[in-house]
Amino acid sequence: MREPAAAPGALAEAMGHAVHRLRHRYVLWGRLCVRFGVAAVLAAEPSTPWQLAGPALAGCAAYDVLVARRLRRSGRARLWPRAVADVADAAAWSLVVGFPYDAAVLITAPLALEAGLRRGRPALLLPLLVGAAIAALLLAAGRPPGPAPVLWPVATAGAGLAAARYLAARLAVLERLARARVAAEAGTAELAGQNSVAMGADSVVDVLARTAPLLAVPGRAAVPSPLPAWKAALAESCSRQATYLGTALLRWQRVHNARSPWLAADADLRPSPGAGTLLLTTAQVTALERLLDAASPSGVVVVDVPEPRPVGGEQRLLLNGTPLVVPADAAAPVRLPDLGPIAFLLAAAGALCHSLPSFEAVPPAVTVPVAALEVGAAWWAHRRTRPPAALVTAGLALGAVDAIASTAGMVNTETSGVARLPFELFLLWFGPLLALHWRDLPPGRRAALLLGTAAVLGAGFALLPPQVSPGLPAAFPVWPAMAVLAAGGLRDAMDQDAAALASALARDRRAVVDEAFQRGRRLVLDLATAEAVAVWERFMTVRDRLAPAVAAEVERRLAEVGDRLARMRGGMPICEDVCEERE
């Protein structure tokens, strides 16, 4: 039996478009935001030589655009040459902006994230070397390196690695479900293939079963045919996995006729020979009942199936010559793994970042419980697929807790002369989550979420300590905008990947189901062929002892069975087939 699986490489590349789009957009907007942050730090220093810093920042921004364009066009770019450029970039701007270097070192984040997503565990070596190289250059220049040069590259690569591992695990679950679904459909299709040969009106199985008792002669026990018992077992197996058309028609007829006391409205549905044993899935029976309700037939109605299809496929019925199409049993829509759990884990990491000395230095007693709550939300979202509205609403609630707790507990109000606005950090993950599910939300929920987000930001501004000077530059508001811009088009890319995956799975499903259907047919033909030869051999041994009329009837039946089997087997005579098997 062919192993039911997805099309080769379909699941492995299921999120190819999404990851590619996220990568080049994050490279573009993430790096441009770093340039803006560096500019904000320099703007807080009155002695900044803008005649040099301005053109340098503009040139670096132009380089960022070129890198992003190359990634978008080529799809792949070597990591190590870009890593060398990032080391030089981050080290040079770290010397310019000074300790704690976060604003400049974050230029390595896009490359580190890509390394984690693409290369797995070995990718952690790249950001580690990048961080060590930056720290070494700072030491050589007589500057204290601090944690930032190593912290941000390694942390970002670790986030990419964790996301890649999680998505790979979820895709593996999707693959197992796809395999199980196709295997179940293949089993049903094989039964349908057997059913298509064995259950037809006056099938070869029935003819052989009725012929075997005619060979009984005095002094020799009759050899019963094994086919009736096998056929009964087949009918039981089929009824457990699907419903016969005749049964479905009789059930609908009984319900329909009981609705009205008028005999003229009664329907008498009579399947044509062989049509009643057509197998329908549960979903197709429901669809058939709806179609019959809409057609509301009455009187004697002959139901014919001119071209039976494999179980689950579209079936075309004729009701007194009028076509009635029962649609194919549609499989569950293919959905790629939800990014909600990843967003909530990023929220937990962001909550802990509030405690960094270079951030707001919020006491861990405040940030750790918030992070634990967000990890719990990630587990809640991971356990089963949640409706988009529930997922985004939970995200806003978590963001509100994070924003209020971090702002109320902040100790540092500025870094390198730039104001700290901790209540905006939740937008780094909540903004993309809202953008990703925006089209899934009803208009009322959209408005409520936007108002809720504005309320959280307003509460954050109200809770800012009085020592936060309104004259300080605030670079942080650009980061939430960067996150939303980087995630732009991600939903379209994920939908494109889901459609490609669904198409690949459908092609594989059709191939496996069709093969199983034909295999079921071959099984019955082989059984009937072997039984026909066995009955013929017994007939030849007792032919002279049978009444002439009985012998003639047995010979006629066996000739008819032979002709039918030869036609169903593509013209191959049954004796040659059996002889080949015996040899």
Features:
disordered C terminus; 583 residues; 5% strand; single chain; four-stranded mixed sheet
Folded structure, characterized:
The model is unreliable at 1-12 and 575-583 (pLDDT under 50). Strand 5 (315-319) and strand 6 form a beta hairpin. The strands form three sheets. The chain has a four-stranded mixed beta sheet with strand order 2-4-5-6. Strands 1-3 form a two-stranded antiparallel sheet. It has a two-stranded antiparallel ribbon with strand order 7-8. It is mainly α and 583 residues long. It has helices at residues 16-43, 50-74, 79-97, 102-105, 109-119, 125-140, 148-198, 204-211, 227-241, 245-258, 282-295, 340-353, 364-383, 388-409, 427-437, 443-463, 478-486, 490-542, 548-568, 574-582, and strands at residues 243-244, 267-271, 279-280, 299-304, 315-319, 322-326, 414-415, 418-419.
Q: How is the topology of this model organized?
A:
Blueprint: H1 16-43, H2 50-74, H3 79-97, H4 102-105, H5 109-119, H6 125-140, H7 148-198, H8 204-211, H9 227-241, E1 243-244, H10 245-258, E2 267-271, E3 279-280, H11 282-295, E4 299-304, E5 315-319, E6 322-326, H12 340-353, H13 364-383, H14 388-409, E7 414-415, E8 418-419, H15 427-437, H16 443-463, H17 478-486, H18 490-542, H19 548-568, H20 574-582
Parallel strand pairs: 2-4
Antiparallel strand pairs: 1-3, 4-5, 5-6, 7-8
